[in-house]
Amino acid sequence: MGIINVSNATFSYGEENIFENIDLEINPGEVFCLFGPNGCGKSTLILCMMGVLALTDGQITLGNRNVRGMKPPEVARIAAYIPQSHEKPFPYKAIDIVLMGRTAHTSTFSPPTPTDRRIAEEAMEKVGIIQFRDRPYTQLSGGETQLVLVARALAQQTPILIMDEPTAHLDFRNELNFLEAIVKLVKDSSLTIVMATHFPNHAFYFEGTGIKSGLALMNNKSITIKGNPVEVLTEENMENVFNIKSKLISYTWKDETLKQIVPLETF
Amino acid sequence: MIIVVSLFIGRYPLSFSEVFTALGFKLGLVQEPVPSTHLNVVWDVRLSRAILGTLVGASLAVSGASFQGMFRNPLVSANILGVTSGAGFGAALAIILFDGQTLFIYLFAFGFGLIAVVLSYLIGTTYKATPTVMLVLGGVVVSSIFSALISLLKYIADPFNQLPSIVFWLMGSLASARFSDTLIAAIPMSIGVVGLLLMRWRLNVLSLGDIEARALGLNVFVAKSLAIFFATLATAGAVCVSGIIGWVGLVIPHIGRMLVGNNNEALIPVTISLGAGYLVIVDNIARTLTGSEIPLGILTSLIGGPFFIYLIRRTKARGW
Fold it and tell me: Would the N or C end of chain B have less CB density within 10 A of its end CB?
C-alpha cells in the first residue's frame, strides 16, 4: 500500500475526458516523477491528488484516506503543493510567504503563533534562503521564488510534497540548484515527493543521487508505462510517446555511472 | 486625540471650560446645572459625531483594504461589489415606503447591501473557481443597476419631503448623528471591523488565489464568504447612518500600504486607525469651513480623488 494510491481515476470537463483509468501507487520516501508532454493532464491529476478538483470516477487516497472526504486543512497537513507558476499579488516579505505554510495549523480567527514563526524561519534556513527573510519576494528571481515556495511547503510539515513542473521557468543553474535542494530534503527528512515534469532526465538525476525514484509516463489521457527510470526512459518509449529519435547515453561522474536520454530528431 | 480636539471645534461658540463642565455634568462629576444647549452641542452633536465618524471611517477603510486583499486587486473598494449603491437603494426605498422610519432605513439598507453582494458573487461564480475579474465585473453590473434604481426612486419621490432627504442623505453626512442612532449603527460596524481584524492574517492567504490558498489548507469558500460578510456588514452599517461617502475605502488602505507594507497583519489595524482619524478630521472641516455645512461625501471625493492621482504617480515606479 503506497502513501498515495490512485485507482481507476478518471476526470472530465463536460463531455471530454482529461485523463481516464489511471492507476498509480507512490511509496513513502520515493521521488516520483510524473512525466509527459504538455497538456497530457499532469496538472489536473495533481490538483485531484490535492483534493482541489474532484475525480469524475475512481478514487485517490492520501495516507490511506480518500482525499474526497478530507477537509482542506486535513489535506494540507499531509501534502504540500508547489505550483508551476506563482502570481505575486502583493510585495509580501519572503518570511510572510513562508509563514502562510502554517495556515492549516492555525484556526480561522487567530494569527500565527511565535512557534509558527520559528518553524517558518527554520524552514528558510533548511532551504538556505534565510538571507532573503525580509526582502519583498517580488524582488526575488524565479529560482529564489521557487525556493521560498519550497520553504513554505516545509513549514507545512507534511510527509508529502507535490510539485507541478517546479523548474519550468528556471535557468540552467537555478534548475540544478532546485534539484539539489530537493535531494537534500529527501535525504534529510524522508519526504515523499511527487513531481510533474517534462524533463525526463530529472528522473535519472534523482536515481543518480541514490534516491529511490519512480516514474510514470503519461500520454493520451492515461499512464502508458510506469516503473523505475531505466525501465521507462527507453529509446523505444520516446519514439512512441513523443515521436522523436533519441539516444540513451551513459557517462561516469565521481565513480558513478549515470544516464541521460538525449533527443536527436523529430519524425 | 482627534475626537477630543473635535469636541472643541464647531460653529456654536463655547469656551474650553464650558465644554469641560458639560462633559463633567453628563458623567456625574459636576453637580451645578449646565445650560442644556451646551449639553446638546457637546454631547449629542460633537461627541456622537466624532464617535460616528471614527466608526464610519474605520468601517469604510477596513472593508476597502479587505476587498483589495481578497480580490487581489489594489484598485477595488466596497463600491466595486455594489454594496454601497445596494445599501443606498435600500435606504432610499425605505424613506419612500415607510416615510423615513429609522428602523426600516437600517433594515432595508443592510438587506439590499447584502443582496447586492450576493448578486455580484453569483454573477462572478457563473464560471467555476470564482475568477476575480468576473466578480469585479459582476459588482460593476449590480452597482449600475442599483444606481439606476436610485435615480428611479428620486424621480417618483415626493419632491417636497422625500426627495430632499434622499438627496442629502446620499451625498453623505454625519449630520444625522444622535447618541441613540450612533449606538444602533455601531453594532453592525463594530462586528464587521472586529471580524476583519481577527481574520486579517487569513486575508494574506486568500490573496494568493483560490488554488494556492486551498492547497495551504484554507477552506476558501468559507473564508471568502466570512470576509465578504464582515466587510459588507461594516460598509452597510456606515452607509445606513451616513449615506454614500466615497474614496475612503480606496485611498486610506493605500496610505496604509505606503506606511507599513502589504502584510494585512499590520495593514488592517493601521487602516482602521487611519480611516477613523481621516474621517473625523474631514468631518470637522466639513462642519466648520463654511456657514452651512458641506456634505461630507463631497469633501472626501474632492480630497480623495486628486490625492489618489498623487499616490499613483508616486508609487508608479515601486509597484504597491
Answer: N
Residue type, A176: L
Judging contacts by C-beta atoms under 8 Å, the chain B residues touching residue A86 are: 208, 212
Helices (H) and strands (E) in chain A, counts: 9, 12
Contact status of A73 with chain B (Cβ, < 8 Å): yes
Which among B67, B194, B208 is the top mutation candidate for probing chain A, defined by the most A β-carbons within 10 Å of its own β-carbon?
B208
Q: In B, which residues are within 8 Å of A50 by CB distance?
A: 214-215
Task: Number of A to B CB contacts under 8 A, please give it.
Answer: 88
Query: The CATH number of B2-318 is which of 3.90.226.10, 1.10.150.240, 1.10.510.10, 1.10.3470.10?
Result: 1.10.3470.10
Looking at mean pLDDT, say which of A97-101, B106-110, B185-189 comes out highest.
Answer: A97-101
Spell out the domain ranges in chain B: 2-318
Residue B55, C-alpha cell as written in the block: 466608526
Q: From the candidates A44, A81, A85, A100, which should be mutated to test the interface with B, based on the most B CB atoms within 10 A? A: A100
pLDDT digits (tens, 9 = 90+) for B242-284: 888 878 888 899 888 888 888 999 999 999 989 988 888 888 8
Residue of chain A whose alpha carbon sits nearest to that of B196 = A109
Window from A45-49, A214-218, B190-194, B309-313 with minimum mean pLDDT: B309-313
Instruction: Measure in Å the smallest separation between the Cα of B14 and chain A Cα atoms.
Output: 46
Nearest to B108 by CA among B122, B88, B82, B81: B88
Cβ of A47 within 8 Å of Cβ of B74? The answer is no
Question: Distance (Å) from the C-alpha of residue A167 to the closest C-alpha of chain B?
Answer: 18
Give all domains of chain A, ordered by start, each with its CATH number. 1-78+158-233 (3.40.50.300), 88-157 (no CATH)
Give the distance from residue A73's alpha carbon to the nearest chain B alpha carbon, in angstroms.
Answer: 4
Express as a percent the part of chain A with pLDDT over 70.
100
Instruction: Give backbone dihedrals phi and psi of B4, rounded to 5 degrees, phi first.
Output: -60, -50
Burial code (b: 16+ CB inside 10 Å, e: under 16) for A128-147 equals ebbebeebbbbebebbbbbb
**CA terminus-to-terminus distance, chain A:** 41
CA-based nearest distance A214→chain B, Å: 24
Best residue of A90, A135, A149 to probe chain B, by most B CBs closer than 10 Å: A90
pTM for the whole structure: 0.85
Please write the tens of the pLDDT for every residue from A111-137. Answer: 899 999 999 999 999 888 999 999 998
Residue B277 pairs with which residues in a beta bridge? none
Q: Which of B201, B211, B217 minimises the CB distance to A77?
A: B217
pLDDT at B185 over 60: yes
What pLDDT digit, counting tens, does each position of B128-184 carry?
555 567 777 888 889 899 999 999 998 888 888 788 878 877 777 776 656 677 778
